[in-house]
Structure formats: structure tokens, C-alpha cells
């Protein structure tokens, strides 16, 4: 009797875990926002995630079915029947070492592309443009853009445009930010784009992405960086190419406001 | 059950109860929030101290029970309206038809209603509201009880008085209190880890303003500070704060500043009744006596400390009538400048557009920077590194004949403020040319950074200085004129 009870507990637990995963998206407990990755690289990362999820789901189901079966059979056996012990089964061991090994190797090879295009300079998109320098500091994001029609350089220029906690990028084209930190380690994380990168003191790290839909997304810090870590939050605003250009022009004009002739500047 | 399992059971029970008590510790009544008193108030003799505390409490209340003092230029919030018809409802209650005041929308529900004019204006308690039907121009408000005396057509009222202040308090306690303190005294629990320290609002002075020299901070200035934060300090940016919440927290900061300033003004008026002043009196009397007794052994003995204290209390009692004036004066003198702060003619607007950012202009700026007229270099150093000779001096404490014990510049709050390193390109008050212009025009209030605008320098000279200062981070000081940066595209 007791044996059956435990069989049920294990089986029900596994079934509940599967069911919870299945309904999670409907209850907004899956990925943030619409659940869809809103950057090109993010979509590829999600694809990898789902491939792995399927592999794991198959293994999970298989293991639990086998476990349930063994438990159930054992529970049905009269208590006088002695258990059988076995010591070593070369074939079995080779099989269960080689199969996972092959799966892991396949995954490693399969994801290499994505990894390379996200992290290796040689594989960055050709037409990528660095549009902003994002400097993390306790506890905010300070952002520097080049003036309209200029390219961003590593050293500040007198005509640079500055914002805080407000990163704006054009959609549907690969853009990059140059990530730095002024103090401790932080991590640049835009969950809806699936983009995450640590900021390391003394380093300037390029992070590229191509946003696929205009909108406002959370930009958060994903590395415990001190007491105010939880409120190190900004926004990433993705705009159409024209809106972006218009915004940058406006921001530039505001930046060089001399307080005279409010609004109607003679350019 | 054997004894071994008994002990293990007992151990489990005690572990569980230990766990529970750990979970629960810290629960219980939270300490009551209170506005701290300034150290000047604490220094007053008992009667003066009690009087100041009563005056401040009466007009500002406690963190849990805020008081809206109508005399102050604070937008306490709420929905203002005028009665257009009154009707008594069967079975108790009064129904009011009301017209809304400008710029407000009737809320869907309300706690209370406060009369501004008419027969009910003297009722101590605001009336309770049962329900509201909000309309386009006219709304109906059903009162919980039958009103007696009955309000008249034309009577003015406020629904949910003080709502904005309450919203501001909620936001302030959540976002700002841990640095700026409950009373805005800059001494929240996080403050001790920060440098520079969070602003103590209680002097009514803010550093980075767009208003004329000596004037109070405007609401727009506060909005900019809160939205953008202060670069180079721990004051964070609250860019993502909802606009209504921002408006509310700004009003709360203004109100806290006024509370502190009011307390300070009363203290300044009653300076003679501080323990420090009385001790000083005693010391002087003793010195006089010691001098006098050399010639005249029968010279009058100086009063003892006790005698002086009693005398002070008597004097204070004698002041009873003047206190009313002290109080009214403090309120009036304070309300004026805060009222004025947002007026357009109070905001610094350059009389001419920015002078083109040319090498010639920067050279003029450089000459001014190094001149005796501005003495910028004495503080900021001839290379702009913030290491001028003035940082080696012992500076006088404002309003006192003594100097600070350590070398260097101090602000009104008594904290060290090194002159800014201008080569770093970090502008706490904002980096737009107009921001830097205003910084030079009005100085940085509450700090030794002086105001140059108006009489000191012409607007054109200030623009030359702005051009020079803003170019500093990009060029070595010696090459300022020889090698101007080719990328400057700001002369429009
Ligand atoms: Cu961080």
C-alpha cells in the first residue's frame, strides 16, 4: 500500500511539473512581455532554448515513466520476494554515457553559430553601427550618443548628446552599444530582447542587437552591484528609423539649449 | 516511544520554535515616524523650545498627520469646485450639484469635503462624502449626513483636501526618505555611506536652480533634478516615475523645505534664548568681572549660570506678545520667496543668445577666468583642476567669526565642497549651455561659488566663460587657444 502511495507521489509530481510548464505562458509566467523575443539574436537564442527544452522534456518524461514503472512493479511484488542486486553492466553504461555525450556535442555544435555572431567580432553583422556608449554606475545608466550624422568615438566630444536611464535605438537594423562601468560590475540586461552582458571595470564591451519591433522595454541591471541594485532600472526605447533621427536631432538641440528664443531656434 | 526519540522530538520542537521566533522578530509596532528637530531647536531654553515645537507642529503636523497651512504657496491638491444646487435627500444626506474648478477633474470617489467659503467654513472636521457622480461640467456629490447649516449656492469647497501632499509623502517615503531623511534633514539611514551627503532641505536652499541669485528653487528645477539625477553624486535619476507622482513628490519636497525653513526662521529670531548664547553671556560677564575686580574689589559679581537661565525664562515670558509677530513674520517672510520662485521674471534668461563658440570667444573667457574680476582660478585653479590656492585656506564659518577646523571650502551646511574639477566635464546642475550660464549667473546657492550675473559680469562675458569652461575637458589648458577642437559644432 505504502509503495503505491509513493509511486503516485513521484508520478504526480512529475506530471504537475509538466502541466505547470504547459500552462505557464497563458498566465504570463513564461518569458516577459509577449513571450516572443524582440531582437533577431534573441529569437535565435529562444530557438536554442526551445531545442534544449525539447531534449530535456523527452529525457524528463522518459526518466519519470521508467521510475514510475519500476516503483509500481516493486510495490506490487509480495514482500517475501527478495530484491535482485546487479553489479556493473558494461553495455548499459557505455550506452548511457555515449548517448548524452552525443546529445551534448550536437548541442554544442548546433549553438556555435549563435554564440559566434553574438560574441565574436569577426561574425558581427557587416552593417552594424555603434550608436551609444552606455556607462553603468551605482545605480543608473548614463548614456552618450554622437551628434546626428557623426560616428561615436571612444573619447567624449563637445557635441555629444547625453541621457540618463534612457537608451534609444532604431529598429530593424543591427546596432551596438559600447558598455562600460564607472565603478563595480554591473550587467546590461534587456529581458524582452534576451540581451545580457556583464559590464567589467576597465573594459569597453561591444553589445550588438537588432530590435524587431518599436516599443519601450525594461533595461535592468542583472549583476548584484550594491544596495541600490534593485532600482538600477532604465528603459530602452526602440523607434523607427525616422523617429529615431527626429529624436536625436531634438535631443541634440535640447542639449545645446542656450535658453534664448525658446522652441524656435534658427538652427 | 523510547527516550532517544523523545529528545530528538524535543529538539525538533525547539528548532521549529526558534525558527518561528526568528521569522517573527522585527514584527510588532513600528516606531512612530517623526520629524526630527534641528539642533538649533534642541539648543533653546525649555520655554522657547516648547514654543517653537508647538508653532511648527501646529502648522505642519507630524509625518502621520500632515497639516496643510493655507498661508504657504503649496499646491496641497484635491478637487476644487463651487456649489450650483443643494437638495436634501429623503432618509438623511444632502445632495450637492457642483461645478468643477479650473484644471481639475472630479474624482470617482472621495473621503472628505472641506468648505472654503459659506456657512460651513468654520466646521472643524471635513464632511464625509457618500458618493460622487462625476459629469462633464457638473457633478453630483452625495454627502453621508444631512448638512446643517446647509451650504449655499456659490459656496466653494475642496474634495479630498491635501491629496497631492499625501501622494507626495507616499512617494517620498518610498523613494527618497532613506537618503534625505523623514524630515528632509539629509540624514536618512543610507546617508552615512554617501559623499557628497544628501541635501538637507531644511534651510530652504537648493544648489542647482534656474532662478536669480538668492531666490528659491523653482518647481521645474526640482523636476529636472529628480528626473536627471545629479551626475557625479548618489542622487539618482527617477526618469521612470509617473508624471503625477513626480508632481506630488516635488510638492512634498517644497513643503518639507518650508517646514524646515520655518523652524529655522523661528530659531534665528529666538537666538538669544539658546543655551549657547546664554553660556556666551555668562562667559563675557565673568571676563568683565575679572577685569573690573582688579580695580574695584567690590565690583558686582557676575550672574551664575542658574541665574542666567532663570532670567532667560523670565525674558521669554515677557516676550509673549512679541511672539505673535515673530510667528507671523516668519510665515510671511518665507511664503513670499517660495511664491515668487516659479514666476517667469524670476528665471534667468540671457539677454543675448550664446556667443558663437569660437577660439576668440574662448580666449576672452580664458582671460576672464584668470582675471582679478572673477577670481575663478583662485578656487578652480589656473588649469581648472579644482586645486586653486583658496582650497588651502581656512575659511570662515558663515555667520560666525570662527573658521572651520580643516582647510578648504565649505557650503552652508558645513560640508567640505571642493571646487569642481572643470576638466572632467561633469556638470551637476546640467550640461546644457543654459545650465552652465545660470550656474555662473546665480552661483551655486549655499556654496562659496559666487554669483557673477547682473552687476559682476555682462551676459556676453558670461557666455565667453561658458564657452571656455565647456571646452576645458577637451583641450589641455595651455593649448586652449592654439589648438581648438575641430569637432565643435555648437555655434548656431
Ligand atoms: Cu548594477
Protein architecture, described:
The complex is a heterodimer of chains A (267) and B (492). Chain A has 267 residues and is an alpha+beta fold. Chain A has 2 domains: 2-77; 129-257, Cupredoxins -  blue copper proteins (Immunoglobulin-like, Sandwich), CATH 2.60.40. Helix content of chain A is 39%, strand content 22%. Chain A has a 5-stranded mixed sheet. A 5-stranded mixed sheet of chain A has the order 4-10-9-6-7. Chain B is globular and about 80 Å long. Chain B folds into 3 domains: 1-76 and 163-347, no CATH class; 79-161, Elongation Factor Tu (Ef-tu), domain 3 (Beta Barrel); 359-489, Cytochrome Bc1 Complex, Chain D, domain 2. By secondary structure, chain B is α+β, with helices and mostly antiparallel strands. Chain B has a 6-stranded antiparallel beta barrel with strand order 1-2-5-4-3-6. In chain B, helix 3 (46-60) runs antiparallel to helix 7, helix 7 runs antiparallel to helix 10 and helix 13 (433-442) crosses helix 14 (459-471). Chain B has 14 helices and 6 strands. The A-B interface holds A 138-140, 142, 147, 150, 156-159, 162, 164-166, 227-228, 231, 233-235, 254-261, 265-267 and B 190, 193, 228-229, 231, 234, 236-237, 239-240, 348-350, 352-354, 425, 431-434, 437-438, 470-471, 473-474, 485, 487-490, 492.
Short overview:
Chain A is of the alpha+beta class and 267 residues long. Chain A has helices at 2-23, 40-76, 90-119, 241-255, and strands at residues 129-137, 140-145, 161-164, 166-170, 175-181, 186-190, 195-199, 205-209, 215-221, 233-239. In chain A, the strands form two sheets. A five-stranded mixed sheet of chain A has the order 3-2-1-5-8. A five-stranded mixed sheet of chain A has the order 4-10-9-6-7.
List keywords for this structure.
heterodimer; A: 267 residues; alpha+beta; Immunoglobulin-like; 2 domains; five-stranded mixed beta sheet; disordered C terminus; B: 492 residues; Elongation Factor Tu (Ef-tu), domain 3; Cytochrome Bc1 Complex, Chain D, domain 2; six-stranded antiparallel beta barrel
